[in-house]
Design brief:
Blueprint: E1 3-6, H1 8-15, H2 21-26, E2 30-33, H3 35-43, H4 50-63, E3 68-70, H5 75-91, H6 97-109, E4 112-115, E5 128-130
Parallel strand pairs: 1-2, 1-4, 2-3, 4-5
Helix pairs in contact: 5-6
């Protein structure tokens, strides 16, 4: 597997050692975490609990791995976002805004998105691996 952009729902399953998520991510040439995915993930963690602290360390260690990259958001990303947004609005199939950001980064950088979310199918020519 090449360069994959991992959606939050897949990242959560990966950290639970859920197959086939673990092997899928571990077989990737490069694993990309978008800033919105990182934000969604850490937003669900309670910093005051032992479990929350452990999960924060887990994501930090994951981001430090040599094959893991944190995506950048550029003006080019924003242009892709706008095109995708207009397309979705035109066809009447709006999806969560954070997922539009993922799709925009995927187009800009040639990433394959890995997600559970079927709504990514509304974006033509998106390189998508939908997980069950």
């Amino acid at each position: 597997m090449g360069r994959v952009l991992v959606d939050t729902n897949v990242l959560i399953r990966y950290f639970k050692d859920d197959e086939p998520f673990a092997s899928l991510i571990e077989s990737a040439e490069e694993v990309v975490i978008h800033p919105v995915v990182y934000a969604e993930y850490i937003s669900g963690l309670d910093e005051l609990t032992k479990m929350g602290k452990a999960l924060r360390k887990q994501i930090k260690d994951f981001l430090d791995a040599p094959v893991v990259t944190l995506a950048s958001v550029t003006s080019v990303t924003s242009n892709y976002y706008a095109k995708i947004y207009r397309h979705l609005k035109k066809i009447g199939k709006m999806i969560p805004q954070n997922d539009i950001w993922l799709a925009a980064s995927a187009f800009e950088n040639g990433y394959e998105i890995i997600s559970h979310d079927a709504h990514f199918r509304y974006i033509p020519m998106l390189n998508l691996s939908q997980m069950p």
